[in-house]
Design goal:
Layout: H1 3-12, E1 17-18, H2 19-26, H3 34-46, E2 50-55, E3 63-68, H4 70-80, H5 92-98, H6 105-131, H7 145-172
Antiparallel strand pairs: 1-3, 2-3
Helix pairs in contact: 2-3, 6-7
């Protein structure tokens, strides 16, 4: 079992879903493609962690719906008590920023503007996800609570990233002094 497998199991504890629906639901939290998801679903079904059924559709091809089994829930609960690994950062943007000392100002501004646009799109995306969660479900113990706090985390990350881009733009424009803009841990 890999991390993606556990994520799929977790989503299936909430509701029965097709492979395509699972791909859409996991995207805000984990980048995964069809080519990764479908083999995992098949393996988990063979391992009896999932059960499936076919749903006939008149206007589209039939679809396979997956549900987690009791054995799958037990496997997920075992995983939940294991230590969480450190987050991994792989961002080409960061590597390019390391090279700004040799870049022309125009190329720096271009990649900075591209990232601003990306953060603004992410903010819209997470705000849309957040708007779909019923207000009555925003409490500890509700099945939507985990989604809500993760969507809020994504939104806050995008907002902070956008704020950072604006700060760097101000530095480039000479409108901000070179100083550490973040509070120290003792100030938090």
């Amino acid at each position: 079992m890999n991390i993606l497998s556990y994520g799929l199991l977790g989503l299936l504890t909430r509701e029965e879903s097709s492979g395509y629906d699972l791909m859409l639901k996991i995207q805000p939290h984990w980048q995964a493609k069809h080519s990764q998801i479908y083999p995992l679903l098949s393996k988990m079904e063979n391992d009896e962690l999932l059960a499936s059924r076919w749903v006939q559709q008149s206007d589209k091809p039939d679809k396979k719906m997956y549900a987690v089994t009791e054995k799958g829930i037990q496997k997920l609960l075992e995983w939940m008590i294991t230590p969480v690994t450190a987050p991994v950062t792989r961002d080409e943007f960061n590597l390019r920023i390391l090279c700004v000392g040799i870049a022309e100002d125009g190329s720096m501004r271009r990649i900075l503007n591209e990232r601003k646009s990306w953060f603004m799109e992410r903010i819209r995306y997470f705000e849309e996800l957040k708007s779909r969660i019923p207000q009555d479900n925003l409490r500890v113990g509700n099945r939507d609570f985990g989604s809500y706090i993760l969507v809020q985390k994504g939104l806050m990350h995008a907002q902070t990233g956008l704020e950072w881009c604006h700060w760097v733009t101000q530095l480039l424009d000479g409108q901000a002094a070179i100083q550490d803009p973040s509070p120290s841990i003792s100030e938090i």
